[in-house]
């Protein structure tokens, strides 16, 4: 076994760089790696790849090999160069542990005087983690081994369990899958440097670690390969040539390259570190290994290389690490804010609801006023951000309704040409020519004749025609009301999700929001019935006489221009697609014939005068009534019955009036919520410390 005061050479760091390494280690010890990926070196390899010998050579500490203890949990090896020699062993509990388990495991601390007792200490750690032959096979807790001394490099590495090829009496299929999942989980962390250890004793293609490293790091940017047991290769063999090519980064290419170590066989006895160095140096001084760069051979060069790689990785990842911690901090803080202060009694619960209702009213008022200057409002280009801007949603739905009812709100639609019988009627409308419409009106006039003189019409005919013409309004407006109500409900759900934890949100939905929204819908439906009744059951009324009369005159003028224009086109032989002006040509026109044609047109119009007048009045009144109906729906239903009621659904006054039983049902805190608050509080503290620590080193330059 290597002696405690080993003479392992070290590459010195500056004081700032050493403090950076120590700070990252402290963050890891606090458990920040449970929330963000920290820059670190992980040692991976197949079982019997010589991984333990690599760790022993780096640290000068002989880890138990035959007992296979290290395969059951990750081991964090912390090496620091200090004037004084010390060795401490502790357990860093995994985040998934309960509070009692965390306290118990954190209390496991051992300080060693020498490493002869290391196997016993690791056995005790294994027992503390709950690992046993017939119990749990693997733990996610980390065994932390901290070694300081004058001859150690500044380095932190995490040793992972060896990858198993096949099941044995003591290693089941589930053990194989579990260890592989854990190793892959570490490898996939984007800030991890992968130290992939392969044994020259085995075929390259059979070593699982290379396959997993390639899968986790396809470009090879953060992988450093280590070849062990080169002394088992036959000189001049194809295998030796293959591994030399591998060491030259020609066979499997990694950005960080490869390194070769000649470790000692523990089964052949124990060696001092000086003896190990001498044997390794002698081995690399001859044969094909002299072809390789001196910096990629031997443990001394590997220590310095790893120190530089780790420092470089930390420095390059520091800006993105700060961003990630900052983002996670904000998310954690938001979750804690939603949970609010502890609510163990009715007064605390009521206070929580009062605070929540106050902010609810603020957000709703901002949203309905169109003042989107609160952090609550996400990017408007996203679906969530648009739904939060409820005023924009309402405005757009109002415009869609106005357009829809203007285009499809009339039952009879006049077209210029005859329509096939199959296409004449649809679910909502009937398409017909003006002549057909006039015929329909005349038929209705005969059925409803009163004492009116010939050529005139009963004013109530306009009421009958309007009732028929506005028939589609009801289905259009009810569909629109449901859409607007649904958008408001969706908005409230988003606000509630933003403000309250899941338990409180469900309570508020069940006891407050659902009943309130149902009541709002009933009020909207009642007002809709009232507005429709004014047009469906009453007689036409408008005191907007100027607009009505002007519209009637416009319809008359348009109608009276059509027949003379058609006659003139026919008389002068002008196509409908041509201009209405013509150049005077040589020749004569029969003006008497033209006068006869115009007279015939006037006489024909007189036969349908009353029907035409009734149709003009219908069209004018429909236009006036539609404009009024659209405005009434927007103001009296949407604004008065929906928008005005939204912020009153939950108010401090309504919370004050709640019974203690209702307050408890809504805001009473479950054990799950209390546990979540404790966990989030710990996480927030860890992330806050991590953020402060990392920001101290922004701009630090790494030597070398």
UniProtKB/TrEMBL annotation:
Record protein name field: P-loop containing nucleoside triphosphate hydrolase protein
Keyword Nucleotide-binding applies: yes
Molecular function terms, GO-annotated: GTP binding; GTPase activity; microtubule binding
UniProt entry tagged with the keyword Nucleotide-binding: yes
Cross-referenced Gene3D superfamilies: Dynamin, middle domain (1.20.120.1240), P-loop containing nucleotide triphosphate hydrolases (3.40.50.300)
Pfam families noted in UniProt: Dynamin_M, Dynamin_N
Record keywords, A-Z: GTP-binding, Hydrolase, Nucleotide-binding
Superkingdom of the source species: Eukaryota
Domain Dynamin-type G: 35-319
Domain GED: 611-702
InterPro entries on file: Dynamin (IPR022812), Dynamin_GTPase (IPR001401), Dynamin_N (IPR045063), Dynamin_stalk (IPR000375), G_DYNAMIN_dom (IPR030381), GED_dom (IPR020850), P-loop_NTPase (IPR027417)
TM annotation in the entry: none
Any single Gene Ontology cellular-component annotation: mitochondrion
GO biological process, one term: intracellular distribution of mitochondria
């Amino acid at each position: 076994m290597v002696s405690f005061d080993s003479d392992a050479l070290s590459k010195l760091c500056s004081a700032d760089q050493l403090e950076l390494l120590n700070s990252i280690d402290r963050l890891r010890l606090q458990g920040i790696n449970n929330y963000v990926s920290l820059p670190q070196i992980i040692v991976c390899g197949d079982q019997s790849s010589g991984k333990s010998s690599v760790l022993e050579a780096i640290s000068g500490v002989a880890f138990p090999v035959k007992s296979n203890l290290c395969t059951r949990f990750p081991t964090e090896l912390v090496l620091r160069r200090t004037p004084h020699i010390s060795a401490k062993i502790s357990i860093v509990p995994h985040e998934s542990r309960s509070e009692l388990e965390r306290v118990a495991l954190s209390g496991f601390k051992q300080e060693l005087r020498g490493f002869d007792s290391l196997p016993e200490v690791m056995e005790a750690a294994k027992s503390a983690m709950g690992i046993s032959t017939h119990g749990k096979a693997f733990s996610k807790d980390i065994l932390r081994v901290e070694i300081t001394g004058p001859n150690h490099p500044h380095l932190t590495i995490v040793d992972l369990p060896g990858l198993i090829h096949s099941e044995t009496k003591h290693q089941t299929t589930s053990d194989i899958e579990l260890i592989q999942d854990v190793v892959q989980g570490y490898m996939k962390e984007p800030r991890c440097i992968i130290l992939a250890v392969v044994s020259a004793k085995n075929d390259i293609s059979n070593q699982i670690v290379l396959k997993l490293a390639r899968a986790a790091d396809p470009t090879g940017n953060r992988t450093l390969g280590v070849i062990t047991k080169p002394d088992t290769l036959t000189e001049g063999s194809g295998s030796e040539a293959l591994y030399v090519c591998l060491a030259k980064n020609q066979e499997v290419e990694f950005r960080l390259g490869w390194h070769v170590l000649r470790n000692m066989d523990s089964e052949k006895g124990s060696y001092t570190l000086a003896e190990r160095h001498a044997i390794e140096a002698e081995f690399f001084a001859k044969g094909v290994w002299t072809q390789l760069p001196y910096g990629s051979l031997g443990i001394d060069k590997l220590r310095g290389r790893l120190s530089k790689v780790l420092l470089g990785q930390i420095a390059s990842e520091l800006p993105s690490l700060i961003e990630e911690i900052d983002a996670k901090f904000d998310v954690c803080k938001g979750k804690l804010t939603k949970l609010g202060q502890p609510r163990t009694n009715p007064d605390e619960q009521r206070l929580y609801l009062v605070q929540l209702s106050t902010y609810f009213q603020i957000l709703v008022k901002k949203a309905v006023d169109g003042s989107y200057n609160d952090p609550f409002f996400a990017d408007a280009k996203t679906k969530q951000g648009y739904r939060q801007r409820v005023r924009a949603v309402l405005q757009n739905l109002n415009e869609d309704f106005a357009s829809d009812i203007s285009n499809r709100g009339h039952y009879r639609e006049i077209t210029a040409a005859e329509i096939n019988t199959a296409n004449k009627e649809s679910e909502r409308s009937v398409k017909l020519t003006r002549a057909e419409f006039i015929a329909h009106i005349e038929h209705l006039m005969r059925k409803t004749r009163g004492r009116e003189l010939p050529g005139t019409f009963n004013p109530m005919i306009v009421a009958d025609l309007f009732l028929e013409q506005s028939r589609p309004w009801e289905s259009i407006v009810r569909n629109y009301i449901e859409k607007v109500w649904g958008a408001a409900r969706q908005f409230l759900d988003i606000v509630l999700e933003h403000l309250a934890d899941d338990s409180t949100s469900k309570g508020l939905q069940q006891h407050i929001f659902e009943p309130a929204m149902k009541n709002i819908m009933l009020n909207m439906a009642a007002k809709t019935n009232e507005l429709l009744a004014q047009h469906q059951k009453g007689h036409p009324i408008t005191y907007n006489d100027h607009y009505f009369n002007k519209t009637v005159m416009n319809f008359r003028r348009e109608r009276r221009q059509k027949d003379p224009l058609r006659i003139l086109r026919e008389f002068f032989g002008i196509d409908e697609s041509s201009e209405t002006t013509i150049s005077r040509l040589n020749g004569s026109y029969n003006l008497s014939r033209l006068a006869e044609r115009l007279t015939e047109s006037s006489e024909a119009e007189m036969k349908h005068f009353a029907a035409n007048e009734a149709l003009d009045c219908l069209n004018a009144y429909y236009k006036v009534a539609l404009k009024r109906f659209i405005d009434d729906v927007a103001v009296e239903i949407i604004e008065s019955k929906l928008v005005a009621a939204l912020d009153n659904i939950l108010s401090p006054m309504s919370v004050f009036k709640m019974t203690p039983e209702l307050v408890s049902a809504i805001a009473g805190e479950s054990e799950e919520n209390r546990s979540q608050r404790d966990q989030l509080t710990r996480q927030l503290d860890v992330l806050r410390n991590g953020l402060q620590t990392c920001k101290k080193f922004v701009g630090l330059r790494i030597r070398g």
